[in-house]
Amino acid sequence: MSYETKVYREPGGATLVVASGGELEVASGGKITAAGTQAAHIADASVAAGAAPDKAEFDAVVTKLNAVLLALEGVGVLASS
Predict the structure, then answer these.
(1) CA distances from 71 to 6, 31, 55, 57, 81 (A)
(2) For the chain, first and last CA: distance in Å?
(3) What is the number of other CB atoms lying within 10 angstroms of the CB of residue 26?
(4) Considering the domain boundaries, does residue 58 fall inside one?
(5) Which of 6, 22, 39, 42 is deepest in the core (most CB within 10 A)?
(6) CB-based contacts of 10: which residues, under 8 Å, 6+ apart?
(7) Is 39 a member of any domain?
(8) What is the pTM of this model?
(9) From the CA atom positions of the chain, what is the Rg in Å?
């Protein structure tokens, strides 16, 4: 009988691998990367106070939201479909 762990360190110990069926909890100060690259910073979204957003402001917020979703999908936090 053999046993394959779902979470293991690559030789050298610098990379922790979570195989299919495994789970990883990231503590405060940790980061998640995809192929060694962390998702790029996404600038804060803003809309002028006091009035309903115009189409350009709405489109900018939607673009930023989609960038957040793509970043989460890219590192496996969200499913891509």
Answers:
(1) 24, 13, 24, 21, 14
(2) 36
(3) 9
(4) yes
(5) 39
(6) 16, 17
(7) yes
(8) 0.56
(9) 19
Distance between CA 74 and CA 78 in Å, rounded?
Answer: 8
> How many structural domains does the chain have?
1
Residue 2 placed within a domain: no
Asked if residue 60 belongs to a domain, the reply is yes
Per residue in 4-52, pLDDT tens?
A: 899 999 999 888 888 889 987 888 888 888 888 888 888 887 777 888 8
Backbone angles phi, psi at 67, to 5 degrees: -65, -40
Cα–Cα distance measured from residue 78 to residue 81, given in angstroms and rounded to the nearest whole number: 9
Q: Which domain holds residue 22?
A: 7-74
